[in-house]
Amino acid sequence: MWNSDWIDEYTRAVLLEFTVYNQNANLFTAAVIMFEYLNTGEVVPSHQFHSTKLFHYSTDFSIFVAMCEVLLFAFNVAFAYIEWKRFKVLGKRAYFSDIWSYVEIIQISLSYSVIGLFFQRMVSVNSVIDDYRASNVSSFISFQTALFWDSVLVYLMAFLVGLVTLKSIKLLRFNKRTFMIMDTVKQSKGMLLSFMFMACVFVIGFGHFCYLAFGKVLSDYRSFLRSVIAIFNFALGTSDFPGIEQAHRVLGPIFFVGFVFIVSFCFMTVFAAILDFGINESKALFMKRRNKIELLEYIIGKFKTIADKN
């Protein structure tokens, strides 16, 4: 490549990009292989592979999937209308005083964002496929734009599904025992915020240390963000002590011992003490609290209401 004038002393990186398609599995795989030239003369390789199904309606269940998508759209319209009516009935002050109202607004926003991104992804995929067919396989067509919208759509759908799943917490209001968790957090929220602030300071400090000390040798610490992720995995018990020791014979063991002592012993002990304080305070509230309504009574009441209307 040097002799063919592909690269010279001003080259910053060399990228190899290609896309393959598996017809049996209906999978597109876009690959990007990069060789980055550092100022020190070192070449750092990296790669990224993204596999996804860009042909949305290509199975025997296409009609069923389309019907479910139409039902989802209809549900979102109805849900948004019901929430708007609730806002008009309660008024601005009462509506926004309930924390679940914010959850509903976020859910509606994410739902319509997913619908919009679904059509954006479809348009992008069709455009890329049309360009590929028009080129008659004589030129390279990048699928990165279509894959980008596909990734954004998947991420938003993940947030939406997670949010809807967490809304099941609303059912906890039917039993006073479940309020102990909320009461524990409320009673110790000041200390928890201080603890989280100190934990963030230590994580940022350890992240910078790992990035500067091990980033040139270990791929897990090649950037600050990846260093922070590796530190969280370290705290969960996934450690690479041989790799750290090999990266630096002195700083590696020092970091390992210091991190284990500070996180596993100091931080966990303080966190457990804060929760113990909150639990003791919430026990007094637990004895005074009464169930507003039992779940079984609530369900029976709903059925009676429906039966009376019929």
TrEMBL record:
Polycystin domain boundaries: 3-54
GO function term, MF aspect, one: calcium ion binding
Topology term for the membrane: Multi-pass membrane protein
Pfam family, one: Polycystin_dom
Ranges that cross the membrane: 61-82, 94-119, 146-169, 190-214, 254-279
Domain Polycystin cation channel PKD1/PKD2 intervals: 57-275
Cellular component GO terms, alphabetical: membrane
InterPro entries to which the protein is assigned, alphabetical: PKD1_2_channel, PKD_2, Polycystin, Polycystin_dom
Keywords of the record: Glycoprotein, Membrane, Transmembrane, Transmembrane helix
Gene Ontology biological process: detection of mechanical stimulus
Protein family: Belongs to the polycystin family.
Protein name from the UniProt record: Polycystin cation channel PKD1/PKD2 domain-containing protein
